[in-house]
Design goal:
Number of helices: 5
Shape: elongated
Number of strands: 3
Structural class: alpha+beta
Helix content: 40-55%
Strand order of the largest sheet: 1-2-3
Strand content: 5-15%
Length: about 120
């Protein structure tokens, strides 16, 4: 899945929230209408709110092992970095290794009428 699909799902959930909240406000509800950004953040941090509106957004960093698994599944050619054996104390960063291949750093799981996983 891609970010476009994720944005469509979030837009749909927010429109549902906005419509229902505006109706409730017309019937004397004294709350405030959240902006879409506030709505998203509240869904991420407030499980009761998230459950009420049916949108769960979970984000987490991928471990190096998960990133390596992703790379094995999604990249056919990988060139391993060569290190000069005569050079000592050279630090090797996994981020530097993954960067040229566009390996994602986090996993976003969205649940709204089904579950969709998106890598970023």
């Amino acid at each position: 899945m891609n970010n476009e699909k994720m944005n469509q799902i979030i837009d749909e959930a927010y429109e549902n929230y906005k419509t229902k909240t505006e109706i409730m406000m017309g019937h004397g509800f004294h709350g405030t209408l959240l902006s879409q950004e506030e709505f998203i953040n509240k869904c991420k941090t407030d499980s009761e709110f998230s459950e009420t509106w049916g949108l769960r957004i979970e984000e987490r960093e991928l471990s190096d092992e998960e990133r390596l698994d992703w790379m094995k599944k999604n990249k056919s050619k990988v060139i391993l970095p060569m290190r000069d054996p005569n050079v000592y104390n050279v630090e090797f960063s996994m981020d530097e290794f993954f960067r040229p291949y566009g390996v994602p750093t986090k996993l976003i799981t969205i649940t709204y009428n089904g579950t969709i996983e998106i890598y970023e």
